[in-house]
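Example: Membrane protein containing HD superfamily hydrolase domain, YQFF ortholog.
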Amino acid sequence: MRQIEQLGAARSLRQHIAKVQ
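Written out as structure tokens, the predicted fold is:
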């Protein structure tokens, strides 16, 4: 269950970084 949360967080982080760059 935690893996899904981590995956979602990593995905959001990647999208955020892509937006910033």
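The radius of gyration is 9 Å.
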